[in-house]
Specification:
about 625 residues, alpha/beta, Arc Repressor Mutant, subunit A, 6 domains, 4-stranded parallel beta sheet, 4-stranded mixed beta sheet, 26 helices, 15 strands, about 55% helix, globular
Protein backbone atom coordinates (compact mmCIF):
# COMPACT_ATOMS: atom_id res chain seq x y z
CA UNK A 1 0.00 0.00 0.00
CA UNK A 2 1.43 3.42 -0.95
CA UNK A 3 0.47 6.92 0.09
CA UNK A 4 0.54 7.89 -3.60
CA UNK A 5 -2.25 5.41 -4.36
CA UNK A 6 -4.23 6.74 -1.44
CA UNK A 7 -3.91 10.27 -2.78
CA UNK A 8 -5.03 9.14 -6.24
CA UNK A 9 -8.05 7.51 -4.62
CA UNK A 10 -8.83 10.72 -2.71
CA UNK A 11 -8.83 12.64 -6.01
CA UNK A 12 -11.22 10.13 -7.63
CA UNK A 13 -13.63 10.23 -4.69
CA UNK A 14 -13.67 14.03 -4.58
CA UNK A 15 -14.32 14.17 -8.31
CA UNK A 16 -17.45 11.99 -8.06
CA UNK A 17 -20.34 13.30 -5.94
CA UNK A 18 -22.21 10.00 -5.83
CA UNK A 19 -21.55 6.45 -4.66
CA UNK A 20 -18.81 4.41 -6.36
CA UNK A 21 -18.16 0.69 -6.05
CA UNK A 22 -14.81 -0.75 -5.02
CA UNK A 23 -14.63 -2.56 -8.37
CA UNK A 24 -15.06 0.69 -10.32
CA UNK A 25 -12.40 2.45 -8.26
CA UNK A 26 -10.08 -0.55 -8.64
CA UNK A 27 -10.38 -0.40 -12.43
CA UNK A 28 -9.57 3.30 -12.45
CA UNK A 29 -6.50 2.78 -10.26
CA UNK A 30 -5.35 -0.44 -11.90
CA UNK A 31 -5.47 -2.40 -8.62
CA UNK A 32 -7.77 -4.98 -6.99
CA UNK A 33 -10.97 -4.16 -5.05
CA UNK A 34 -9.27 -5.59 -1.97
CA UNK A 35 -6.51 -2.97 -2.34
CA UNK A 36 -9.12 -0.23 -2.65
CA UNK A 37 -10.71 -1.32 0.63
CA UNK A 38 -7.27 -1.25 2.26
CA UNK A 39 -6.57 2.24 0.93
CA UNK A 40 -9.92 3.52 2.23
CA UNK A 41 -9.24 2.02 5.67
CA UNK A 42 -5.86 3.79 5.68
CA UNK A 43 -7.41 7.09 4.56
CA UNK A 44 -10.02 6.93 7.31
CA UNK A 45 -7.30 6.11 9.81
CA UNK A 46 -5.65 9.44 8.94
CA UNK A 47 -8.68 11.43 10.17
CA UNK A 48 -9.65 11.89 13.84
CA UNK A 49 -13.22 10.66 13.38
CA UNK A 50 -12.32 8.03 10.81
CA UNK A 51 -15.09 9.30 8.53
CA UNK A 52 -13.31 10.77 5.50
CA UNK A 53 -14.87 8.12 3.23
CA UNK A 54 -18.40 6.84 3.81
CA UNK A 55 -19.30 3.23 2.97
CA UNK A 56 -22.67 1.68 2.20
CA UNK A 57 -24.51 -0.89 0.05
CA UNK A 58 -23.77 1.19 -3.08
CA UNK A 59 -20.03 1.41 -2.41
CA UNK A 60 -18.07 4.42 -1.20
CA UNK A 61 -18.65 8.16 -1.14
CA UNK A 62 -16.49 11.10 -0.08
CA UNK A 63 -17.32 13.02 3.07
CA UNK A 64 -16.27 16.04 1.07
CA UNK A 65 -15.34 18.58 3.77
CA UNK A 66 -13.32 15.99 5.72
CA UNK A 67 -11.64 14.46 2.67
CA UNK A 68 -10.82 17.84 1.11
CA UNK A 69 -9.33 18.95 4.43
CA UNK A 70 -7.22 15.81 4.54
CA UNK A 71 -5.82 16.48 1.06
CA UNK A 72 -5.06 20.09 1.98
CA UNK A 73 -3.47 19.12 5.29
CA UNK A 74 0.26 19.22 5.74
CA UNK A 75 0.69 15.88 7.51
CA UNK A 76 1.24 13.78 4.39
CA UNK A 77 4.46 13.23 2.49
CA UNK A 78 3.92 11.62 -0.89
CA UNK A 79 6.75 10.68 -3.26
CA UNK A 80 5.85 13.76 -5.31
CA UNK A 81 6.06 15.95 -2.21
CA UNK A 82 9.50 14.54 -1.47
CA UNK A 83 10.61 15.03 -5.07
CA UNK A 84 9.46 18.64 -4.95
CA UNK A 85 11.31 19.21 -1.67
CA UNK A 86 14.47 17.84 -3.25
CA UNK A 87 14.12 20.08 -6.31
CA UNK A 88 13.47 23.14 -4.15
CA UNK A 89 16.57 22.33 -2.12
CA UNK A 90 18.64 22.05 -5.31
CA UNK A 91 17.28 25.39 -6.51
CA UNK A 92 18.44 27.20 -3.38
CA UNK A 93 21.77 25.39 -2.77
CA UNK A 94 24.54 27.42 -4.43
CA UNK A 95 27.16 24.73 -3.76
CA UNK A 96 24.84 21.79 -4.37
CA UNK A 97 23.62 19.05 -2.03
CA UNK A 98 25.37 16.16 -0.35
CA UNK A 99 23.37 12.99 -1.09
CA UNK A 100 23.99 11.43 2.34
CA UNK A 101 23.17 14.60 4.29
CA UNK A 102 20.03 15.06 2.17
CA UNK A 103 18.90 11.51 2.97
CA UNK A 104 19.19 12.26 6.68
CA UNK A 105 17.30 15.54 6.29
CA UNK A 106 14.46 13.85 4.41
CA UNK A 107 14.43 10.81 6.73
CA UNK A 108 14.87 8.37 3.86
CA UNK A 109 17.60 6.02 2.68
CA UNK A 110 20.50 6.96 0.41
CA UNK A 111 18.99 4.68 -2.26
CA UNK A 112 15.71 6.61 -2.11
CA UNK A 113 17.51 9.91 -2.71
CA UNK A 114 19.41 8.35 -5.64
CA UNK A 115 16.09 7.17 -7.08
CA UNK A 116 14.59 10.64 -6.61
CA UNK A 117 17.60 12.20 -8.36
CA UNK A 118 16.89 9.97 -11.35
CA UNK A 119 13.33 11.32 -11.35
CA UNK A 120 14.71 14.88 -11.15
CA UNK A 121 16.75 14.20 -14.30
CA UNK A 122 13.54 13.12 -16.01
CA UNK A 123 11.87 16.32 -14.82
CA UNK A 124 14.68 18.32 -16.43
CA UNK A 125 14.20 16.76 -19.89
CA UNK A 126 13.48 19.49 -22.42
CA UNK A 127 14.77 22.26 -20.14
CA UNK A 128 18.06 24.13 -20.18
CA UNK A 129 18.97 22.70 -16.78
CA UNK A 130 21.07 19.70 -15.84
CA UNK A 131 22.38 17.92 -12.76
CA UNK A 132 26.13 17.73 -12.29
CA UNK A 133 27.58 15.13 -9.94
CA UNK A 134 30.92 15.14 -8.17
CA UNK A 135 31.19 12.29 -5.70
CA UNK A 136 28.33 12.56 -3.19
CA UNK A 137 27.62 16.19 -4.13
CA UNK A 138 25.09 17.05 -6.82
CA UNK A 139 24.34 20.53 -8.19
CA UNK A 140 21.68 22.04 -10.44
CA UNK A 141 23.24 23.97 -13.33
CA UNK A 142 21.42 26.43 -15.59
CA UNK A 143 20.49 30.08 -15.90
CA UNK A 144 18.01 31.90 -13.67
CA UNK A 145 15.19 31.97 -16.23
CA UNK A 146 15.38 28.20 -16.70
CA UNK A 147 15.35 27.71 -12.93
CA UNK A 148 12.22 29.84 -12.62
CA UNK A 149 10.52 27.75 -15.26
CA UNK A 150 11.31 24.71 -13.17
CA UNK A 151 9.73 26.36 -10.10
CA UNK A 152 6.67 27.13 -12.21
CA UNK A 153 6.52 23.51 -13.37
CA UNK A 154 6.50 22.28 -9.77
CA UNK A 155 3.60 24.58 -8.99
CA UNK A 156 1.62 23.60 -12.07
CA UNK A 157 1.86 19.92 -11.17
CA UNK A 158 -0.45 20.81 -8.29
CA UNK A 159 -3.12 21.93 -10.76
CA UNK A 160 -5.42 18.95 -11.27
CA UNK A 161 -9.11 18.35 -11.73
CA UNK A 162 -9.70 21.98 -12.69
CA UNK A 163 -8.56 23.43 -9.37
CA UNK A 164 -6.35 26.44 -8.74
CA UNK A 165 -5.40 25.91 -5.08
CA UNK A 166 -3.25 28.94 -4.21
CA UNK A 167 -1.85 27.45 -1.02
CA UNK A 168 -0.92 24.21 -2.82
CA UNK A 169 0.81 26.20 -5.59
CA UNK A 170 2.68 28.29 -3.02
CA UNK A 171 3.76 25.19 -1.11
CA UNK A 172 4.90 23.33 -4.25
CA UNK A 173 6.88 26.33 -5.51
CA UNK A 174 8.46 26.94 -2.10
CA UNK A 175 7.42 30.59 -2.00
CA UNK A 176 8.29 31.12 1.65
CA UNK A 177 8.73 34.89 1.35
CA UNK A 178 5.35 35.52 -0.33
CA UNK A 179 2.02 35.79 1.48
CA UNK A 180 -0.58 33.53 -0.17
CA UNK A 181 -3.32 36.12 0.46
CA UNK A 182 -1.56 38.46 -1.99
CA UNK A 183 -2.19 36.16 -4.98
CA UNK A 184 -5.89 36.94 -5.34
CA UNK A 185 -5.49 40.68 -4.90
CA UNK A 186 -2.62 40.78 -7.42
CA UNK A 187 -4.68 38.83 -9.98
CA UNK A 188 -7.80 40.96 -9.59
CA UNK A 189 -5.94 44.26 -9.86
CA UNK A 190 -3.90 43.04 -12.84
CA UNK A 191 -7.11 42.05 -14.67
CA UNK A 192 -8.69 45.42 -13.85
CA UNK A 193 -5.65 47.37 -15.08
CA UNK A 194 -5.52 45.42 -18.34
CA UNK A 195 -9.24 45.87 -18.95
CA UNK A 196 -8.83 49.62 -18.48
CA UNK A 197 -6.20 49.53 -21.24
CA UNK A 198 -8.69 47.95 -23.65
CA UNK A 199 -7.65 44.28 -23.50
CA UNK A 200 -9.76 41.16 -23.12
CA UNK A 201 -8.36 39.26 -20.15
CA UNK A 202 -7.85 35.50 -19.85
CA UNK A 203 -8.56 35.10 -16.13
CA UNK A 204 -6.83 31.71 -15.82
CA UNK A 205 -3.67 33.11 -17.36
CA UNK A 206 -3.89 36.22 -15.18
CA UNK A 207 -3.71 33.95 -12.13
CA UNK A 208 -0.77 32.19 -13.76
CA UNK A 209 1.04 35.50 -14.23
CA UNK A 210 0.39 36.29 -10.56
CA UNK A 211 2.14 33.00 -9.76
CA UNK A 212 5.13 33.96 -11.93
CA UNK A 213 5.24 37.41 -10.35
CA UNK A 214 5.28 35.76 -6.91
CA UNK A 215 8.10 33.48 -8.07
CA UNK A 216 10.01 36.54 -9.32
CA UNK A 217 9.42 38.37 -6.03
CA UNK A 218 10.58 35.36 -4.03
CA UNK A 219 13.71 34.88 -6.15
CA UNK A 220 14.57 38.59 -6.00
CA UNK A 221 14.14 38.55 -2.22
CA UNK A 222 16.66 35.70 -2.14
CA UNK A 223 19.16 37.72 -4.21
CA UNK A 224 18.39 36.04 -7.54
CA UNK A 225 17.14 38.83 -9.77
CA UNK A 226 16.77 38.25 -13.49
CA UNK A 227 19.31 40.38 -15.34
CA UNK A 228 19.21 38.92 -18.84
CA UNK A 229 16.64 40.44 -21.23
CA UNK A 230 15.69 39.82 -24.86
CA UNK A 231 16.28 43.06 -26.77
CA UNK A 232 14.70 46.40 -26.01
CA UNK A 233 11.25 46.41 -24.41
CA UNK A 234 8.34 47.55 -26.58
CA UNK A 235 5.99 50.40 -25.70
CA UNK A 236 3.42 47.88 -24.43
CA UNK A 237 6.06 46.22 -22.28
CA UNK A 238 7.01 49.60 -20.79
CA UNK A 239 3.38 50.31 -19.89
CA UNK A 240 2.82 46.85 -18.45
CA UNK A 241 6.14 46.94 -16.63
CA UNK A 242 5.06 50.02 -14.70
CA UNK A 243 1.80 48.31 -13.73
CA UNK A 244 3.58 45.11 -12.66
CA UNK A 245 6.13 47.06 -10.65
CA UNK A 246 3.42 48.88 -8.72
CA UNK A 247 1.47 45.66 -8.08
CA UNK A 248 4.58 43.80 -6.95
CA UNK A 249 5.54 46.54 -4.51
CA UNK A 250 2.00 46.75 -3.16
CA UNK A 251 1.25 43.04 -2.73
CA UNK A 252 4.63 41.28 -2.51
CA UNK A 253 6.62 44.13 -0.95
CA UNK A 254 9.42 43.64 -3.50
CA UNK A 255 10.80 46.05 -6.11
CA UNK A 256 11.50 44.18 -9.35
CA UNK A 257 14.35 45.16 -11.64
CA UNK A 258 14.12 45.86 -15.39
CA UNK A 259 14.97 42.27 -16.35
CA UNK A 260 12.17 40.83 -14.23
CA UNK A 261 9.66 43.44 -15.36
CA UNK A 262 10.42 42.88 -19.04
CA UNK A 263 10.08 39.12 -18.59
CA UNK A 264 6.76 39.43 -16.74
CA UNK A 265 5.35 41.95 -19.22
CA UNK A 266 6.22 39.50 -22.00
CA UNK A 267 4.26 36.82 -20.13
CA UNK A 268 1.29 39.15 -19.88
CA UNK A 269 1.33 39.90 -23.61
CA UNK A 270 1.65 36.25 -24.64
CA UNK A 271 -0.63 34.63 -22.05
CA UNK A 272 -3.11 36.94 -20.45
CA UNK A 273 -4.54 39.27 -23.05
CA UNK A 274 -6.30 39.24 -26.36
CA UNK A 275 -6.66 42.66 -27.93
CA UNK A 276 -10.15 44.11 -28.02
CA UNK A 277 -11.75 47.28 -29.29
CA UNK A 278 -9.24 49.83 -30.53
CA UNK A 279 -6.33 47.76 -29.21
CA UNK A 280 -7.21 44.89 -31.53
CA UNK A 281 -6.73 47.02 -34.62
CA UNK A 282 -3.28 48.08 -33.43
CA UNK A 283 -1.96 44.50 -33.27
CA UNK A 284 -0.45 43.23 -36.48
CA UNK A 285 -1.24 39.62 -37.30
CA UNK A 286 1.69 37.88 -38.98
CA UNK A 287 0.65 36.98 -42.57
CA UNK A 288 2.16 33.49 -42.31
CA UNK A 289 0.26 32.79 -39.10
CA UNK A 290 -2.97 34.17 -40.58
CA UNK A 291 -2.59 31.96 -43.68
CA UNK A 292 -1.79 28.93 -41.53
CA UNK A 293 -4.81 29.46 -39.27
CA UNK A 294 -7.08 30.04 -42.28
CA UNK A 295 -5.92 26.79 -43.87
CA UNK A 296 -6.30 24.86 -40.60
CA UNK A 297 -9.79 26.25 -39.92
CA UNK A 298 -10.94 25.55 -43.49
CA UNK A 299 -9.58 22.01 -43.30
CA UNK A 300 -11.33 21.35 -39.97
CA UNK A 301 -14.59 22.90 -41.20
CA UNK A 302 -14.60 20.63 -44.25
CA UNK A 303 -13.49 17.53 -42.37
CA UNK A 304 -15.97 17.79 -39.51
CA UNK A 305 -18.80 19.70 -41.19
CA UNK A 306 -18.72 22.61 -38.75
CA UNK A 307 -19.41 26.26 -39.52
CA UNK A 308 -16.24 28.00 -38.34
CA UNK A 309 -14.96 29.69 -41.50
CA UNK A 310 -15.53 33.31 -40.51
CA UNK A 311 -13.18 36.26 -40.89
CA UNK A 312 -13.61 37.59 -37.36
CA UNK A 313 -13.14 34.10 -35.90
CA UNK A 314 -10.00 33.49 -37.99
CA UNK A 315 -8.46 36.81 -36.89
CA UNK A 316 -9.22 36.22 -33.21
CA UNK A 317 -7.86 32.68 -33.37
CA UNK A 318 -4.88 33.96 -35.36
CA UNK A 319 -4.00 36.44 -32.61
CA UNK A 320 -4.23 33.62 -30.08
CA UNK A 321 -1.98 31.38 -32.19
CA UNK A 322 0.47 34.27 -32.60
CA UNK A 323 0.78 34.40 -28.81
CA UNK A 324 0.96 30.61 -28.68
CA UNK A 325 3.97 30.65 -31.03
CA UNK A 326 5.71 33.23 -28.83
CA UNK A 327 5.05 31.05 -25.78
CA UNK A 328 6.44 28.03 -27.58
CA UNK A 329 9.66 29.87 -28.44
CA UNK A 330 10.06 30.70 -24.75
CA UNK A 331 9.33 27.06 -23.82
CA UNK A 332 6.28 28.24 -21.88
CA UNK A 333 2.77 26.78 -21.83
CA UNK A 334 -0.44 28.55 -20.83
CA UNK A 335 -2.09 26.26 -18.30
CA UNK A 336 -5.83 25.63 -18.57
CA UNK A 337 -7.59 24.07 -15.56
CA UNK A 338 -10.66 23.37 -17.75
CA UNK A 339 -8.82 21.00 -20.10
CA UNK A 340 -10.20 17.80 -18.60
CA UNK A 341 -13.80 19.01 -18.41
CA UNK A 342 -13.70 20.45 -21.95
CA UNK A 343 -12.43 17.17 -23.33
CA UNK A 344 -15.07 15.04 -21.59
CA UNK A 345 -18.06 17.40 -21.98
CA UNK A 346 -17.39 18.58 -25.57
CA UNK A 347 -15.39 15.82 -27.32
CA UNK A 348 -16.41 16.93 -30.80
CA UNK A 349 -15.33 20.54 -30.21
CA UNK A 350 -12.09 19.30 -28.68
CA UNK A 351 -11.50 17.07 -31.71
CA UNK A 352 -11.95 20.05 -34.07
CA UNK A 353 -9.39 21.91 -31.92
CA UNK A 354 -6.98 18.96 -32.17
CA UNK A 355 -7.30 19.07 -35.97
CA UNK A 356 -6.55 22.81 -36.03
CA UNK A 357 -3.65 22.39 -33.58
CA UNK A 358 -2.19 19.55 -35.66
CA UNK A 359 -2.17 21.63 -38.86
CA UNK A 360 -0.86 24.73 -37.09
CA UNK A 361 1.85 22.82 -35.23
CA UNK A 362 3.07 21.09 -38.37
CA UNK A 363 3.18 24.21 -40.56
CA UNK A 364 4.68 26.52 -37.93
CA UNK A 365 6.91 23.86 -36.36
CA UNK A 366 5.61 24.32 -32.81
CA UNK A 367 4.57 21.74 -30.26
CA UNK A 368 1.02 22.31 -28.98
CA UNK A 369 0.07 20.63 -25.71
CA UNK A 370 -3.37 19.67 -24.34
CA UNK A 371 -3.77 22.90 -22.34
CA UNK A 372 -3.11 24.98 -25.45
CA UNK A 373 -5.50 22.78 -27.46
CA UNK A 374 -8.14 23.44 -24.78
CA UNK A 375 -7.82 27.20 -25.37
CA UNK A 376 -8.31 26.63 -29.10
CA UNK A 377 -11.36 24.52 -28.21
CA UNK A 378 -12.75 27.45 -26.23
CA UNK A 379 -12.45 29.63 -29.34
CA UNK A 380 -14.16 26.94 -31.46
CA UNK A 381 -16.87 26.38 -28.87
CA UNK A 382 -17.64 30.07 -28.66
CA UNK A 383 -18.04 30.21 -32.43
CA UNK A 384 -20.30 27.13 -32.56
CA UNK A 385 -22.43 27.81 -29.48
CA UNK A 386 -25.15 29.82 -31.21
CA UNK A 387 -25.49 27.29 -33.99
CA UNK A 388 -25.58 24.39 -31.54
CA UNK A 389 -28.37 26.12 -29.61
CA UNK A 390 -30.34 26.68 -32.80
CA UNK A 391 -30.02 23.00 -33.72
CA UNK A 392 -31.47 21.90 -30.36
CA UNK A 393 -34.59 24.08 -30.47
CA UNK A 394 -37.73 21.99 -29.94
CA UNK A 395 -41.17 22.92 -31.26
CA UNK A 396 -44.19 22.91 -28.96
CA UNK A 397 -47.96 23.11 -29.20
CA UNK A 398 -49.94 24.67 -26.33
CA UNK A 399 -53.35 23.11 -25.69
CA UNK A 400 -55.34 25.51 -23.52
CA UNK A 401 -59.12 25.86 -24.01
CA UNK A 402 -59.94 29.54 -24.38
CA UNK A 403 -60.96 31.57 -21.37
CA UNK A 404 -60.13 35.22 -21.85
CA UNK A 405 -56.41 35.36 -22.67
CA UNK A 406 -55.21 32.38 -20.56
CA UNK A 407 -53.49 30.75 -23.54
CA UNK A 408 -51.65 33.98 -24.33
CA UNK A 409 -50.47 34.32 -20.74
CA UNK A 410 -49.27 30.72 -20.83
CA UNK A 411 -47.43 31.25 -24.09
CA UNK A 412 -45.83 34.46 -22.84
CA UNK A 413 -44.62 32.81 -19.61
CA UNK A 414 -43.07 29.88 -21.49
CA UNK A 415 -41.31 32.18 -23.96
CA UNK A 416 -40.04 34.43 -21.17
CA UNK A 417 -38.82 31.60 -18.92
CA UNK A 418 -37.50 29.01 -21.38
CA UNK A 419 -36.12 31.41 -23.97
CA UNK A 420 -35.04 30.19 -27.41
CA UNK A 421 -34.72 26.49 -26.48
CA UNK A 422 -38.45 25.85 -27.08
CA UNK A 423 -40.40 27.48 -29.90
CA UNK A 424 -44.19 27.51 -29.59
CA UNK A 425 -45.46 26.93 -33.12
CA UNK A 426 -49.13 26.21 -32.40
CA UNK A 427 -51.91 26.99 -29.92
CA UNK A 428 -55.10 24.89 -29.61
CA UNK A 429 -57.96 26.56 -27.72
CA UNK A 430 -60.66 23.93 -28.34
CA UNK A 431 -61.71 21.48 -25.65
CA UNK A 432 -61.58 18.65 -28.23
CA UNK A 433 -58.46 19.25 -30.34
CA UNK A 434 -57.36 16.75 -32.97
CA UNK A 435 -54.61 15.19 -30.82
CA UNK A 436 -53.42 12.91 -33.64
CA UNK A 437 -52.74 15.89 -35.87
CA UNK A 438 -50.38 17.57 -33.38
CA UNK A 439 -46.86 16.79 -34.68
CA UNK A 440 -44.64 19.10 -32.60
CA UNK A 441 -41.84 17.85 -30.36
CA UNK A 442 -43.71 18.81 -27.17
CA UNK A 443 -47.39 19.06 -26.27
CA UNK A 444 -47.99 21.42 -23.33
CA UNK A 445 -51.60 20.97 -22.27
CA UNK A 446 -53.89 22.24 -19.50
CA UNK A 447 -56.41 19.41 -20.13
CA UNK A 448 -55.87 15.69 -19.88
CA UNK A 449 -55.06 14.09 -23.27
CA UNK A 450 -56.72 10.76 -24.25
CA UNK A 451 -53.30 9.12 -24.55
CA UNK A 452 -50.04 10.14 -22.90
CA UNK A 453 -46.60 9.85 -24.41
CA UNK A 454 -43.13 11.18 -23.57
CA UNK A 455 -43.72 14.49 -25.34
CA UNK A 456 -46.81 15.40 -23.32
CA UNK A 457 -46.58 17.66 -20.26
CA UNK A 458 -49.79 18.43 -18.35
CA UNK A 459 -49.79 21.92 -16.83
CA UNK A 460 -51.99 24.20 -14.72
CA UNK A 461 -53.09 27.47 -16.40
CA UNK A 462 -50.72 29.47 -14.21
CA UNK A 463 -47.20 28.07 -14.25
CA UNK A 464 -45.00 27.56 -11.21
CA UNK A 465 -41.22 27.12 -11.23
CA UNK A 466 -41.78 23.39 -10.71
CA UNK A 467 -43.91 23.27 -13.87
CA UNK A 468 -41.18 24.98 -15.87
CA UNK A 469 -38.69 22.42 -14.57
CA UNK A 470 -40.97 19.60 -15.76
CA UNK A 471 -41.06 21.13 -19.24
CA UNK A 472 -37.27 21.45 -19.24
CA UNK A 473 -36.89 17.85 -18.09
CA UNK A 474 -39.20 16.58 -20.83
CA UNK A 475 -37.32 18.60 -23.44
CA UNK A 476 -33.96 17.25 -22.25
CA UNK A 477 -35.32 13.71 -22.34
CA UNK A 478 -36.49 14.13 -25.93
CA UNK A 479 -33.18 15.65 -27.07
CA UNK A 480 -31.19 12.86 -25.43
CA UNK A 481 -33.49 10.21 -26.85
CA UNK A 482 -33.00 11.53 -30.37
CA UNK A 483 -29.25 11.66 -30.00
CA UNK A 484 -29.04 8.14 -28.63
CA UNK A 485 -31.46 6.80 -31.24
CA UNK A 486 -29.09 8.07 -33.93
CA UNK A 487 -26.20 6.45 -32.09
CA UNK A 488 -28.02 3.10 -31.88
CA UNK A 489 -28.66 3.14 -35.62
CA UNK A 490 -25.03 3.98 -36.39
CA UNK A 491 -23.56 1.43 -33.98
CA UNK A 492 -25.62 -1.43 -35.36
CA UNK A 493 -24.25 -0.56 -38.81
CA UNK A 494 -20.60 -0.17 -37.84
CA UNK A 495 -19.95 -2.80 -35.12
CA UNK A 496 -19.22 -6.41 -36.03
CA UNK A 497 -18.29 -9.62 -34.13
CA UNK A 498 -14.89 -10.03 -35.81
CA UNK A 499 -13.78 -6.61 -34.49
CA UNK A 500 -14.77 -7.27 -30.87
CA UNK A 501 -11.97 -8.17 -28.47
CA UNK A 502 -12.61 -9.27 -24.89
CA UNK A 503 -10.41 -9.37 -22.97
CA UNK A 504 -8.26 -6.61 -24.43
CA UNK A 505 -4.94 -7.55 -22.87
CA UNK A 506 -2.49 -4.84 -23.88
CA UNK A 507 0.21 -2.88 -22.06
CA UNK A 508 -0.53 0.62 -23.36
CA UNK A 509 -2.46 2.73 -25.83
CA UNK A 510 -0.24 2.02 -28.87
CA UNK A 511 -0.45 -1.72 -28.36
CA UNK A 512 -4.23 -1.47 -27.94
CA UNK A 513 -4.60 0.61 -31.14
CA UNK A 514 -2.58 -1.89 -33.16
CA UNK A 515 -4.49 -4.87 -31.72
CA UNK A 516 -7.86 -3.29 -32.57
CA UNK A 517 -6.67 -2.07 -35.96
CA UNK A 518 -5.65 -5.59 -37.07
CA UNK A 519 -9.19 -7.01 -37.69
CA UNK A 520 -10.22 -3.84 -39.56
CA UNK A 521 -7.10 -4.04 -41.70
CA UNK A 522 -7.78 -7.72 -42.39
CA UNK A 523 -11.21 -6.76 -43.79
CA UNK A 524 -9.67 -4.01 -45.96
CA UNK A 525 -11.42 -1.21 -44.07
CA UNK A 526 -8.10 0.48 -43.19
CA UNK A 527 -4.44 -0.06 -43.97
CA UNK A 528 -1.27 0.02 -41.87
CA UNK A 529 -0.82 3.71 -42.62
CA UNK A 530 -4.20 4.48 -41.01
CA UNK A 531 -3.15 2.58 -37.88
CA UNK A 532 0.16 4.49 -37.76
CA UNK A 533 -1.68 7.81 -38.11
CA UNK A 534 -4.06 6.81 -35.31
CA UNK A 535 -1.04 6.24 -33.07
CA UNK A 536 0.32 9.64 -34.20
CA UNK A 537 -3.04 11.31 -33.39
CA UNK A 538 -2.95 9.78 -29.91
CA UNK A 539 0.42 11.41 -29.26
CA UNK A 540 -1.06 14.83 -30.04
CA UNK A 541 -3.71 14.55 -27.33
CA UNK A 542 -5.13 11.61 -25.41
CA UNK A 543 -8.46 10.25 -26.66
CA UNK A 544 -9.43 9.03 -23.18
CA UNK A 545 -12.52 11.22 -23.10
CA UNK A 546 -14.02 9.67 -19.96
CA UNK A 547 -12.67 7.62 -17.07
CA UNK A 548 -13.91 4.48 -18.84
CA UNK A 549 -13.59 5.09 -22.58
CA UNK A 550 -10.93 5.93 -25.15
CA UNK A 551 -11.88 6.60 -28.79
CA UNK A 552 -8.66 6.48 -30.85
CA UNK A 553 -8.92 7.52 -34.50
CA UNK A 554 -6.87 9.14 -37.24
CA UNK A 555 -7.31 12.79 -38.16
CA UNK A 556 -7.78 11.96 -41.84
CA UNK A 557 -10.97 10.06 -42.79
CA UNK A 558 -9.38 7.63 -45.26
CA UNK A 559 -11.10 4.33 -44.32
CA UNK A 560 -12.87 2.54 -47.19
CA UNK A 561 -15.99 2.60 -45.02
CA UNK A 562 -16.81 3.59 -41.45
CA UNK A 563 -16.30 0.79 -38.90
CA UNK A 564 -15.62 0.39 -35.18
CA UNK A 565 -13.33 -2.10 -33.45
CA UNK A 566 -14.25 -2.53 -29.81
CA UNK A 567 -11.98 -3.76 -27.04
CA UNK A 568 -12.94 -4.42 -23.41
CA UNK A 569 -10.31 -4.97 -20.76
CA UNK A 570 -10.68 -7.26 -17.77
CA UNK A 571 -9.82 -4.52 -15.32
CA UNK A 572 -8.36 -1.57 -17.18
CA UNK A 573 -5.74 -0.55 -19.75
CA UNK A 574 -3.04 2.06 -19.18
CA UNK A 575 -3.85 5.03 -21.44
CA UNK A 576 -1.40 7.91 -21.18
CA UNK A 577 -1.73 9.32 -17.68
CA UNK A 578 -5.06 7.55 -17.13
CA UNK A 579 -6.63 4.10 -17.31
CA UNK A 580 -9.66 3.06 -19.37
CA UNK A 581 -11.84 -0.02 -19.51
CA UNK A 582 -13.25 0.23 -23.05
CA UNK A 583 -11.43 1.20 -26.24
CA UNK A 584 -13.39 1.98 -29.41
CA UNK A 585 -11.09 2.40 -32.41
CA UNK A 586 -13.16 4.25 -35.00
CA UNK A 587 -12.25 4.24 -38.69
CA UNK A 588 -14.14 6.93 -40.61
CA UNK A 589 -14.54 7.24 -44.35
CA UNK A 590 -14.74 10.51 -46.24
CA UNK A 591 -18.20 9.62 -47.60
CA UNK A 592 -19.65 9.16 -44.12
CA UNK A 593 -18.30 12.26 -42.39
CA UNK A 594 -21.71 13.08 -40.94
CA UNK A 595 -21.53 9.89 -38.85
CA UNK A 596 -18.46 11.21 -37.05
CA UNK A 597 -20.26 13.66 -34.79
CA UNK A 598 -23.09 11.23 -33.98
CA UNK A 599 -20.77 8.40 -32.99
CA UNK A 600 -18.11 10.51 -31.38
CA UNK A 601 -20.17 12.68 -29.05
CA UNK A 602 -22.92 10.22 -28.17
CA UNK A 603 -20.59 7.28 -27.54
CA UNK A 604 -18.73 9.48 -25.07
CA UNK A 605 -22.06 10.44 -23.49
CA UNK A 606 -23.07 6.79 -22.93
CA UNK A 607 -19.73 5.88 -21.39
CA UNK A 608 -19.67 8.92 -19.11
CA UNK A 609 -22.45 7.37 -17.02
CA UNK A 610 -20.78 5.06 -14.51
CA UNK A 611 -23.83 2.85 -13.89
CA UNK A 612 -24.21 2.22 -17.63
CA UNK A 613 -20.52 1.37 -17.95
CA UNK A 614 -20.64 -1.13 -15.10
CA UNK A 615 -23.76 -2.74 -16.56
CA UNK A 616 -22.11 -3.10 -19.97
CA UNK A 617 -18.92 -4.52 -18.50
CA UNK A 618 -20.76 -6.93 -16.25
CA UNK A 619 -23.25 -8.31 -18.79
CA UNK A 620 -21.53 -7.81 -22.14
CA UNK A 621 -19.29 -10.87 -22.06
CA UNK A 622 -19.43 -11.47 -25.83
CA UNK A 623 -20.33 -9.43 -28.90
CA UNK A 624 -24.01 -10.37 -28.97
CA UNK A 625 -24.65 -9.71 -25.29
CA UNK A 626 -22.61 -6.50 -25.35
CA UNK A 627 -24.58 -5.10 -28.31
CA UNK A 628 -27.87 -6.10 -26.66
CA UNK A 629 -26.90 -4.35 -23.44
CA UNK A 630 -25.61 -1.28 -25.30
CA UNK A 631 -28.92 -0.97 -27.15
CA UNK A 632 -30.80 -1.45 -23.87
CA UNK A 633 -28.75 1.28 -22.20
CA UNK A 634 -29.35 3.63 -25.13
CA UNK A 635 -33.08 2.92 -25.08
CA UNK A 636 -33.11 3.65 -21.35
Amino acid sequence: MTRQRQDQLVTLLLRDRGWTTAAALADLLGVTPRSVRSYIAAINARTPGGDAVESGPSGYRANRPVLAGLRAGGERETPRDRLHRLVRALLTAEEGLDVYETAETLYVSDATVESDLARVRGLLDGTELQLRRSGPRVRLVGDELAQRRLVSRLAHEEMEEGTFDVEALRRAAGLGTVDSAAFGAFTRELAAELASLGWYVNEFAAADVALHAAIAADRVARGRALHRTHGEPSDDQHRLGATLDALSRRHFDVALGPGDLQHLSSLVLTRVVAPGGAAEEQVRLDPEIEATVRQAVTHAAHGYLVDIVDEEFIRRLGLHVQNLVLRSREHATARNPLTRSLKSAYPMIFQVAVSIASDVGRRLDVEIHDDEIAYIAMHVGGRLERRRMAETVLTATIVCPGYYELHELLRSRIARSLGPSIEVTGVETRVDPDWAAIDTDLVLTTIEPPHRDERTVTLPPFLTDADLERITTAASRIRRGRRLARLREELERYLSPDAFIRPLDTADEEEAIRALGAPLAARGVIDQDYIDRTVERERLSSTAFTEALAVPHALQMTATRTAIALGIADGSVSWGDARVQVVALVAFSEDEREAFQTIFEQLVEVFSERESVQRLLRRGQDFGSFLDELVAVIDG
